[in-house]
């Protein structure tokens, strides 16, 4: 039998059984992996020393908890960007460095890099995966390109124009609620909470043609979406729960899973009901009936979409895109609208100028509603909205993971494997969200003008 000498372990020759050889091979492989990871980690640490970092909160947790999703956290982040205007480094735990890039010149090499060089960082985006699936937010490569082409018709002016009536109706409901609360003596309102419900109400009508009345009564579906958003943000702050196995053992993880099922069941039911309608009615008849009601919702567009080869989207793909738009559409728009109101409240002279511009546009008009063609007739208000989006973009950062070294203009190098958060390019933020924020805010102001004439003042 083959003899194996282990004198270096203080053992004499022993019989080398297959299991012992397998154990040695496995241990050698594991040791090699650990040594390789250790070398890469320390090499990256050495190369990242050129990026400044604020004092750590804790030797083990690093900067975890330094920037919280609160007003104080926003002030802290603002101060950090002021102190380190080009960018800085944070440690999430002892072994996870995260680069925060701020200056446009520093961001540009990553912005211009291909998706293969700087793909989406799924460590963060992955928390959304069980909820949003492979929608546009999380997918990449050929699948992203194919879906993006198929979804382009959903943003045609002829489809978007009728949504103005939906926005006006949702805003009217919100303003009526504010008027009622004010008459009952409510001195304070959480604007973001009310506007979030308004945007969710609008989206359910635009995406599903569904009347939830969520602004006036509780909705399980809406509550689940708000709950899922909160859980994702909370999990992001708890590095020990980034592992799926551990997270789903916690009460939050179990509630997250239940909320996902509820949202998916709702979307699946709408898709199945709409699919049953299409074959029996026929696409031409279906489109004629939709033309009479002047609304073609997002589910309709997805069901009718085909790629260059004539292939349709699967039910799973449609659900992913619909859920993605419900999440991305409501939160970004509500955030953008809330900041616009905040900035106008801080500058009453500009608020009054916006009001006068709307008054001039809507004078002698009945009913007093903003229409699609009005959007180009409010230049000063448009500038205020754009400036608010510049100061507080709805999506302030996006995350990327570098698959190869990226050289910055000042000669510093972001090493392969590094994770980075980069401030959203201002132009990108405006182009992506300006349309929905602008339309929603014009609808809001149109209703406010009606109340103003009736003697109810809104700041």
TrEMBL record:
InterPro entries: Cyt_P450, Cyt_P450_E_grp-II, Cyt_P450_sf, Cytochrome_P450_Monoox. It is found in: Endoplasmic reticulum membrane; Microsome membrane. Residues 1-16 form the signal peptide. Pfam families: p450. Keywords: Endoplasmic reticulum, Heme, Iron, Membrane, Metal-binding, Microsome, Monooxygenase, Oxidoreductase, Signal. Its cofactor is heme. The keyword Membrane applies. Gene3D superfamilies: Cytochrome P450. GO terms for cellular component: endoplasmic reticulum membrane. One of its GO terms (molecular function) is oxidoreductase activity, acting on paired donors, with incorporation or reduction of molecular oxygen. One of its GO terms (biological process) is menaquinone catabolic process. It comes from the Eukaryota. Its main location: endoplasmic reticulum. Belongs to the cytochrome P450 family. This is Cytochrome P450 family 4 subfamily F member 11. It comes from Pan paniscus (Pygmy chimpanzee). The gene is CYP4F11.
